[in-house]
Design a protein that fits this description.
396 residues; alpha+beta; FAD/NAD(P)-binding domain; seven-stranded mixed β-sheet; six-stranded mixed β-sheet; binds flavin-adenine dinucleotide
Amino acid sequence: MPHSPNDRHITIIGAGLAGAVLATLLVKRGWSVDVYEKRGDPRLKGYEGGRSINLALAERGRHALRLAGADDAVMAQAVMMRGRMVHFLDGRTDLQRYGRDDSEVIWSVHRGELNVILLDIAERAGARLYFNRGLSGVAFDTRLARFTDPRDGSSHEAGFASLVGADGAGSALRTAMATQGELGERTEFLGHSYKELEIPPSADGSFSIEPNALHIWPRGRYMCIALPNDERTFTVTLFLPNDDLPNEGQPQNRTPSFASVRTGVDARALFERDFADALPLIPKLEHDFEHNPTGLLATLYLDRWHLDDHAVLLGDAAHAMVPFHGQGMNCAFEDCVALAEHLDAQHDRAAAFAAFQAERLPNARAIQAMALENYLEMRDRVDDDDYLLQRALEHS
Ligand code: FAD
């Protein structure tokens, strides 16, 4: 049965990070919420996320988690990161604090655990969650959404009053909306990709390196980072250009890339040369490098996030960004708070969606630009003498 836009009913596509938080916020405000997720329930069969094992959670994201009643449960598994631990080529390290004290820190959270916590909270609040339901088409005129079960290809239909696209960077709802009108969509690929590796706990079961820091190995045009996990491992992310870049004046000494570092043996040679202090910490380097996928990095720009009162996009579906400011999820959580507030403030949904876009689109653009700039800072400036001096003065 189609719903009427007067129903205070919302259908959310995607039960990832933003979908689960938005569902909770809306149910708490008295909305009736259905959430459709393409994957299986991660609480039954384990998380099959396939990218970025952990994430930096900042105050912007925690604000939304507090409103959703999820902050305590999330923080129980979060690891504090006080600052950046810079690993120089010669093995020296330097902790650059984010703020003056532990009131200004960020937190490392495990994506799979976070998603499970948020789903539990959404369901307990009263949201109806449907798994193995991938949005495959939308009849906007009759307000019917079509879903496909990836297990057997079967088709299912559900009526909706309005759809919210929390279905990530490859949003199927965005594709459906684009058939109804120009969204002004463009994707800019960074030309650099990433590979995840793991630092296991040390022999006595403790963290192998300082746990309360975001570790960075800046190397000019490329870098490694490592974030701690509560089970005392670290997830290392190696960022490299996709193709070899010639070094000015030294053609024989090219910047490594995923085109030249292809095998586990190549990866070991790179680590021996450029990340020597990290190498003994990653015993399964060759295995991780050859078995983990290489992730692409891109920025998604959209000029229009909604289709009158039928549908609206948020989170990565509206504004995917490169991960160098650690703000994609945090920004998606801020979107959830803003959309819930606009939906409550305006009876007219098209006006609420338009007000949501007017508030959030400029913010998303600003964070997208900062995320691109921060790649340069992280890989090239945090070990720079002038930069270190400037930070020392700021904190003196
Ligand atoms: P997603 O988390 O992608 O969730 C989308 C959901 O929709 C998924 O569950 C998916 O299965 C589902 N779905 C997809 N298609 C369909 C369909 N057709 N029908 C139904 N469901 C569907 N952000 C930070 O804030 N801090 C960080 O430190 C950070 N680090 C990152 C590191 C890397 C390497 C990457 C790639 C990203 C990082 N991000 C970080 C960004 C963050 O991952 C995203 O911004 C965040 O996941 C966006 O949440 P979302 O809910 O919009 O999308």
